[in-house]
Amino acid sequence: MDDLRKQWRDLVTRYCIRYDAPAGDHCWTPELEMASRGELQAIQSEKLALAYRYLWQCSPFYRRKFEGAGLRHDSVRQVADLTKIPLTHREEWLDDQREHPPWGTFSPLRQQDWLERGWMLFSTSGTTAAFPRVFRHTTFDRDVWTYFGARGLHAMGVRPGDISINCFSYGTSVAFWGMHYSLNHMGVPVISGGGANTERRILFIRNYQPTVLMCTPSYCLYLGRAMEAAGAAPAESSIRLVIASGEPGACVPATKRRVEQLWGAEMHDHFGCTEVAMPPLGYSCTHQVARRDGPVETHIMEDAYIAEALDPETFEPVPDGRPGILAVSNLYSEAQPILRYVMGDWITITTTPCGCGRTHKRAVGGLRGRNDKLIKIRGLMFFPATIEDAIRSIPEVGDEFRVVIDHTHDMDQVYATIEPADPACQDGLPNLERHVARALKGSLGIRVDVAVVPPGSLPRAEFKADRLTDRRAKLSAHPNRSAP
Ligand SMILES: [Zn+2]
Prior knowledge:
Elements: H1 2-14, H2 30-33, H3 37-58, H4 60-68, H5 90-99, H6 111-117, E1 118-123, E2 134-138, H7 139-155, E3 164-166, H8 177-186, E4 190-192, H9 198-208, E5 212-215, H10 217-229, E6 241-244, H11 253-263, E7 266-273, E8 277-283, H12 286-289, E9 297-300, E10 305-310, E11 323-330, E12 341-350, E13 362-364, E14 375-377, E15 380-382, H13 384-392, E16 397-408, E17 411-420, H14 429-444, E18 448-452, E19 468-470
Parallel strand pairs: 3-4, 3-5, 5-6, 6-7, 16-19, 17-18
Antiparallel strand pairs: 1-2, 7-8, 8-9, 9-13, 10-11, 11-12, 12-13, 14-15, 16-17
Helix pairs in contact: 1-3, 3-4, 7-8, 10-11, 11-13, 13-14
The protein binds zinc ion.
């Protein structure tokens, strides 16, 4: 069994090509980034077959799951065998940790590995206090994660010579811990803005001239407006790249335009998930963010992950170009090599060539939103990001808005509250209401009641925003095939 653990680490290490090259050089790996589709699939097959055997022997949870599906120790040898493996759902994870506290039996990690090579414990925020879902990672995981993160940052345009300011909290969430180490690996210094308030971060930007800003899309806008209120122009600051995560904003065209104009910077998207795909599962490239002819398409790092789009009802894979919900298999972790984990976000995958030369598949428009956030009104379905795009596409409207969906007079009704962008704006408010209502009708296909309130009335989102409240009884979470 120990031999298999070592084999797995050795295989993963073998594909960390150029890990030890001089700073900067190790981040561009054409052998992997520009591998043919066949070569990528061969790498995935080799990693998947060993990950399967590693889990078969070292993860009691997966052994039970594999045997329950009638699989043998050698049933998975290549990517074509992937669909033999049963899907893993979030609830199973929670049940496993409840039944086998404190770690559950998911992870192949033994206590002795944790004591010898333990790096950090992470947890998600969305569970009960008694059973927070926790994830252990080893220093081996940290190093591999660092390597993939640096490749993602390179694709986003980060280079030695940059200075970064990271406004994510350095807490028990995985968010941006990996990026911190990746930046160090690239020779890029990090100003940790995690524990600082907005005033202090503005001071950091002014005094220490960082060129890369890392935060949520909501906070990009919040911080930029706070700088303006303090008499400074974000577009004239040292920031040249905004790397956003935690919300779909960088792939919402109107939000991306706002942030890029506000900061005079390129805005990139970057996503992952705590359970299976620590960033960068998805990352934009400089070619995609420069596009003005369609949505940003974020690359999926395919030598690190296998991403599948599944039909939400049958859970069968859907062809490229069709929307489905995302399931991910991790191909590198010592502690969490989870296979076919259903993240639940809507994704449309394409493998058409990208202008940057990378051959890895892409998510059209990034992650569109979780299946349970899909809104269904009068037979139409859309994501909150569609509303955000429609409202923020109107320059006269401020950054903040709120939307309430209610069921009154036997009908679903949508109410939007907006602010004018110009604090001095007193005239023309009825026109603004009509303008926004027209934009929403055009995007959603339904009438929306719009109300304008004075600038500054709506609460400001400092981290991640939930601008939509659905007061109706919960509707079916499963959309039909014509969804997004
Ligand atoms: Zn690209």
